[in-house]
Write a structure and sequence with these properties.
By secondary structure, the chain is of the alpha+beta class. The protein contains 8 helices and 21 strands. InterPro entries: AAA+_ATPase, ABC_SmlMolc_Importer, ABC_transporter-like_ATP-bd, ABC_transporter-like_CS, ABC_transpr_FbpC, Mo/tungstate-bd_C_term_dom, P-loop_NTPase.
Length: about 350
Amino acid sequence: MSFLRLQAVSRRFGQVAALDAVDLAVPEGSRTAILGPSGSGKSTLLRIVGGFETPDSGRITLGGDLLAEGPRTVPAHLRGIGLVAQEGALFPHLSVADNIGFGLPRATPGREARIAVLLAMVELDPSMLRRRPDQLSGGQQQRVALARALARKPRLMLLDEPFSALDTGLRASTRKAVADLLAAEGITTILVTHDQAEALSFADQVVLLREGRLLQAGKPRDLYLQPRDTTVATFFGEAVILPARLSGGWAECALGRVPLTRPDPRARAEIMLRPEQIALLPTGTEAAEVRARVEAVEFGGASCGVAVRLQRAEDGGRAPRLELRCSYLTAPPVGSLVRLAVSGQAHPLLPAGEGRP
């Protein structure tokens, strides 16, 4: 059952549609990541859910309670929603203890004990209670901001790119600690981010917005391996997209005969494979092998980018050039012939704009 529900939510700023009839269901206790390029509407969506922005039309409910119906909305402070912003937004003149307890009235029974418990929940040492924000690292500041947001036991937590200002290693460890804590507390969470890897690793559900429209929502694995169309496929990383003839759950393409993720009634369509599904092997004597010539190799640390040109084309067209990846230990030399082996299934893509949710 949906805990948070958005139905046909729209918001315009002048001639620009920041959100265009967005429908979204968020299950209770889950983590949802909202992704999209700049200007896609993800921050507007978060602000509308939090009560800091008013929709022009549409309906929002949380746990069965009506939060908004068109411009008629419940004020932000009455929604029971917590927010952690990009920079933490701690009060610089207050101690860590006072920042965490900011939303708790001074007369609250057991207030000091509650602050100590919250500090422990975000895995910070009690000695930090007397420090000011400028005496903390970036990761520590974000943990204090999370503790402050948790103080009033929110029904829903909103995370507005809270890890983007952190260094790469610290970002990963802080993100995991926050995810584990929110899961342990059973708090429904929405994360806004521009980082695809962050969304895929953090969330149970990933939502992709573009130009105010919801392109696809689903499990991270589904959006990565079974994107709706080329736009979604390429947003989530490198993709090999080829024209193919479809029949009986199989695709016939320049890489040979490849099974599909699902049956498709169309005779022709574009199919997608992720580069890691295509292995580069030494050439052999197999009669049916798919051969390619290596045109470029780009060193990238643990893995290398390898551009190859297939030696055959579907329907007599120009042979495709594929961008693949392999370990630097097995990277073939430029100009050499290699054999390509496909693992797993190819996914048929819809034409752009067709079958929108």
